[in-house]
Predict the structure.
Amino acid sequence: MRKGVMRPGHVQIRVLDMDEAVVHYRDRLGLIEVNRDSLGRVYLKGWTEIDAFSVVLREADEPGMDFMGFKVLSPDVLACLYQELVDYGCQVETIPAGELDGCGERVRFDSPTGHYFEIYAEKEQTGKWGVEEKNPDAWPEDLKGMRATRFDHCLLYGDDVDGTVDLLETVLGFQLAEQVVDKETGQRAAAFLSISTKAHDVAFVRHPEKGKFHHASFYLNSWEDVLRAADLISMHDIPLDMGPTRHGLTHGQTIYFFDPSGNRSEVFSGGDYTYPDHPVVTWDADMLGKAIFYHARELNDTFLAVVT
Amino acid sequence: MMKHTVKLAATGEEFFCREDQNLLQGMQSFQMGLPMLKLIPVGCRGGGCGICRIKITTGIYEAKKMSRKHIPEEDQARGIVLACRVYPRSDLLIEVLSLSH
Ligand code: FES
Ligand SMILES: [Fe+2]
């Protein structure tokens, strides 16, 4: 049951070197650099996003994800969910408006997999980049690199996947769209959750260590664009992880590669959709190779082992 | 560009690495008559995942910034580094280590 959480809103990613990271996210992925704040963080967004920003880069000694944020319908929903998170037993913290430039008050909470999530009701809306608000043209001409259209989802690794799934389903109204389950033990190896009609807005894979970041993903319009991204990865000698190929889970067309600090990026197109009455799609764990990389039908060395 | 020899202490296997290549790039370069070498595990190639952790027991090198989670300062002072962030300045003798956690 939906609880007033609308969609993914932002992700804050730690990078080792800001200049190198900006080249990756702005010039290669093609996100729009929109702001730098007094802490030196860089704000970016995909050109179709109406919000002021969706990706925040922070320079640090260790790469990974600081937090992922979701937008809720209203300040009333935010207040209500704050209380529900406290009652559920989360560590909950209120981050004052303006801590991220242009973003209202955020409610941050931890999760059983060790990831930090946030919800917020208000963020400055600056409109789609490069097209008029009224009578908008199809796309702006001066986009760079892969021309990523929007920040779409994150895949996160941690130990207590069932715990985080329960938290997101029960308190925030996420829907389990797809999962990978071990036939013998019944243990869930992966969970893909939707808060919209997308195939997933956040996903989890079971992993011994808490709080790990597998990738942030950005949406492209077509398979042709995924192939074009692959060309750019070769042109700029970007470390490639896998693809271009198709996922079995969600059926998106995808390519995985790494930013200069070792954080994985994905660009993808297509994929399935999820309505609230859809049954959960289940993959058997012994089919994990095909579930992840539909054509190769086997995992590469890095899918389960390489995270930040 | 100067080319150096990187040798694994355990097995004596070796590869060449130019000064403008990190050790993983050197290891993965084409060498006549040899299959692609897989002596050190390859992951993110950005100093983030820790999978290419090695100890350099002999030799001179330069290291770019790498994740402090995998290479705390004390370790780095003892020659423990991430191979994807290390550029040789002399021949090197190395040991392959496992992930830090
Ligand atoms: S390959 Fe990931 S740290 Fe070197
Ligand atoms: Fe993904």
Summary: The longest strand of chain B covers residues 3-8. The pocket of fe (ii) ion (ligand 2) is lined by residues A 153, 155, 215, 217, 266 (CB under 6 Å). The domain at 3-96 of chain B is CATH 3.10.20.30 (Ubiquitin-like (UB roll)). Chain B touches chain A at residues 41-49, 51, 65-69, 101 (CB under 8 Å).
